[in-house]
Write a structure and sequence with these properties.
This protein has 558 residues and is mainly β. The protein has two helices and 32 strands. It has a 29-stranded mixed β-sheet that branches. A three-stranded antiparallel β-sheet has the order 2-5-6, with no helix packed on it.
C-alpha cells in the first residue's frame, strides 16, 4: 500500500493560498520492439497512457495516478491514507493518518490513525496522539495469504519537554494494546484449519517510558542521550501470575498494563559526548538495546546489540581538506544465552581534497570484520563465522567551466573484497574480489549548446565459480537547437568486451533520441536503440542475439 499524507497547514497563511490548482503531467508512448536470436522480452508493439496529476486544494496536495496500456488498465489514488495537521501560531492539531516521532525508543515513526495535539509555547512543548496503530488482518480461508493474522492495535502516546535545539529534556510514553475481539473466534478456527497460523498469535499489551536530553556547554561541547523502558505483556489472557516485581511496582504498573506471567521488561539506551566547532569535531557514541526490546510505537528495533563508536571529523587548509571517519566495535549475545557471540569491527573514512578550484580528489575506505566466539555452548570451529569485507575508492576529478568551453574529467576506481577467515573455510565459496573503474571526459561548447563525452569502463568480478566482467568505450553527443534550446538531438554508442561464465563476447549498442518542447505544456520525443551480444563462440549459456527498440511519445505538462 502506498500511503501519503498532507503536510501541516499554517492556517494563518490560508488566505494567501490558491483555492484550487492542478499540477503534474500526462504521458502517452508507443513502443516498437524486435528480437533476434533470443525469445522476445516484450510485445512487438505496445502503448502506454499514464498520468500523475496532483490536485492542490488550499495548499493540500492530493496526488493521483493512472496507467492504461494493452496489458494493464488501472487507476490509483495513493492518497488512501489521509491526514491533516493544521497549525495556528504554536498550536498544531493532528487528524487522520499521522506519522510522528517522540523519541527513538517510544513513538518512533509509527503511523497512527487518530487525533492529536501539539503545543509549543516558547521553550516548552507538549503533545499527544491517540488512535489505531494497526488494523486487524484475517487469513483467507482458501489461500491463507495473510499469515499469521493480527489483532487491531490501539494506543496513546505523548511527550512533554522544555528547552531548545542545543539543550533540552523530554519525557515520552506509549501505552498500547491489541483488541482481542477484533478477530472473531470463527476466523481463528478457519485459519487454524488452513495451517496458516499457529497458537503464537496472542493479544499483547505494552507500556513504554522514554527520556531524552541534550546539554551543550562551553559553546561547542555536548552530551546527549536517549533511554527507553518497555514493559511488554505477550498474552493478556495468561493465567500465570507474576511474582518477581515488588508490590509497590506491581500496584503502580497494574494500573497501566495487565501484569501476568507473560510480562517482561526490557531496556534500551544510547548516549554520546563530544566536541563540534564548524567542520571539526570528535564524538563518542554508545548504544545498547537489550534482547527482545520492542515498542508498539515503532515498527522494528535491532535488538540484542551493543556498540561503541568513535566519530572524528575535521577540515584543514581553509576547507581544502575535509575528513569524516567512524571507528567502532559491535557485539550481540548480551545475556550470554546464544551458542556463539558475534563481534564486528567497523571502520570507515572519507576524505575530500580540493587542490585548486578545478582539481580535486575523493577517497573512501571501509572495513567490516565479523568474528564469532563460543557462548553458552561450545561450538566446533567448523561452524564459526569469521569474515572481513574491505572496500577502497579513489576518484580524482577536474572541472573547468568557461564562457566558451567547459571540460570535465573524472576517474573513479573502486575495489572491494570479501574474505572468509573461519577455521573451517566452508564459506570461502562466497569469497569475491570486485574492481570497478571508469574514466570520463566531457566537452561542452557553451555558445552552441553542444556536448560530447567519452567513457571507458572496466568491471571485473572474481568468484570461486569463475570470473565475470566487461571493458569498453561509450560515446555520447547532445546538441540543442533554437533560441531556447527547445529542439534537442542526442546520440549514443558503446563497444564492450564482455566475460561471462569464462566465455568472451562483443557487446554493441547505440541509440538516437530527438525531443521538441513546444511552449510550456507540450513535449514530443522519439527514441531508437539497438543492442547486440556477439560471443566469440556460442554456447547454450551464451548465445548470439540482438534487440531493437523504438519509442514515440508525447507529454502534456499541467
Amino acid at each position: 500500500m502506498v500511503s501519503l499524507a498532507a503536510r501541516g497547514q499554517d492556517l494563518a497563511a490560508l488566505p494567501q493560498q490558491k483555492p484550487f490548482t492542478v499540477t503534474g503531467a500526462v504521458d502517452v508512448r508507443t513502443i516498437f520492439y524486435q528480437a533476434r536470436g533470443i525469445s522476445a522480452r516484450r510485445q512487438p508493439f505496445s502503448y502506454v497512457l499514464s498520468g500523475s496529476p496532483t490536485l492542490n486544494i488550499y495548499g493540500l496536495a492530493v496526488p493521483l495516478s493512472f496507467t492504461l496500456s494493452e496489458q494493464d488498465r488501472q487507476f490509483r489514488q495513493p492518497f488512501n491514507q489521509f491526514g491533516l495537521s493544521p497549525t495556528y501560531k504554536w498550536v498544531t492539531l493532528h487528524g487522520g493518518y499521522r506519522n510522528l516521532t517522540y523519541s527513538p525508543f517510544t513513538l518512533a515513526g509509527h503511523t497512527v490513525l487518530g487525533a492529536g495535539l501539539e503545543l509549543t509555547p516558547g521553550k516548552f512543548r507538549f503533545g499527544f496522539i491517540t488512535g489505531r496503530l494497526s488494523r486487524a488482518t484475517t487469513v483467507d480461508p482458501v489461500s491463507g495469504a495473510l499469515a499469521p493474522f493480527s489483532f487491531s492495535r490501539r494506543g496513546v502516546a505523548g511527550h512533554i519537554g522544555v528547552g531548545s535545539e542545543k539543550s533540552f529534556v523530554d519525557l515520552s510514553f506509549v501505552r498500547a494494546h491489541d483488541d482481542s475481539s477484533s478477530v472473531s473466534r470463527a476466523t481463528r478456527q478457519e485459519a487454524a484449519k488452513t495451517g496458516a497460523v499457529n497458537n503464537a498469535v496472542l493479544p499483547a499489551e505494552n507500556v513504554v517510558l522514554g527520556l531524552s536530553g541534550k546539554l551543550t556547554f562551553a559553546k561547542n561541547w555536548l552530551v546527549e542521550g536517549d533511554g527507553g523502558l518497555s514493559v511488554y505483556t505477550r498474552n493478556q489472557g495468561s493465567k500465570l501470575q507474576v511474582d518477581a516485581l515488588p508490590a509497590a511496582v506491581s500496584n503502580s504498573l497494574g494500573k497501566l498494563i495487565t501484569l501476568n506471567g507473560s510480562t517482561e521488561t526490557y531496556t534500551a539506551w544510547q548516549a554520546a559526548a563530544g566536541y563540534q566547532k564548524n567542520s571539526t569535531g570528535l564524538k563518542v557514541r554508545y548504544r545498547r538495546v537489550a534482547p527482545g526490546y520492542q515498542s508498539m510505537g515503532a515498527y522494528y528495533f535491532q535488538d540484542d546489540v551493543e556498540n561503541l563508536t568513535l566519530v572524528p571529523s575535521f577540515a584543514l587548509f581553509k576547507q581544502h581538506l575535509r575528513f569524516n571517519g567512524s571507528l567502532g566495535v559491535q557485539q550481540d549475545n548480551l545475556r550470554r544465552q546464544k551458542q556463539l557471540t558475534s563481534r564486528r569491527f567497523i571502520a570507515s573514512a572519507t576524505a575530500t581534497i580540493d587542490f585548486t578550484e578545478r582539481l580535486g580528489v575523493d577517497v573512501g575506505y571501509s572495513n567490516f570484520s565479523t568474528d564469532q566466539q563460543p557462548g553458552a555452548v561450545q561450538v566446533s570451529d567448523t561452524f564459526r563465522l569469521a569474515q572481513t569485507q574491505q572496500s577502497v575508492s579513489v576518484a580524482p576529478r577536474y572541472t573547468y567551466a568557461g564562457e566558451t568551453w567547459g571540460h570535465t574529467v573524472l576517474l573513479s576506481v573502486d575495489r572491494a573484497t570479501l574474505r572468509d577467515q573461519g577455521p573451517g573455510g566452508l564459506g570461502r565459496l562466497g569469497d569475491f574480489t570486485s574492481l570497478n573503474a571508469f574514466l570520463t571526459y566531457q566537452l561542452t561548447w557553451v555558445p552552441r549548446r553542444f556536448t560530447v563525452g567519452a567513457t571507458y569502463n572496466f568491471t571485473r568480478l572474481e568468484l570461486a565459480q569463475g570470473n565475470d566482467g566487461n571493458r569498453g568505450l561509450q560515446l555520447t553527443a547532445d546538441q540543442s537547437f533554437g533560441p531556447k534550446g527547445d529542439f534537442r538531438v542526442g546520440l549514443r554508442g558503446s563497444w564492450l568486451r564482455g566475460l561471462r561464465v569464462g566465455q568472451e563476447s562483443k557487446l554493441l549498442g547505440g541509440g538516437l533520441r530527438l525531443s521538441y518542447r513546444a511552449g510550456k505544456h507540450h513535449t514530443f520525443r522519439t527514441d531508437v536503440a539497438f543492442t547486440g551480444n556477439y560471443p566469440d563462440s556460442e554456447t547454450p549459456q551464451l548465445r548470439r542475439y540482438s534487440e531493437s527498440r523504438g519509442e514515440v511519445g508525447y507529454t502534456f505538462s499541467l
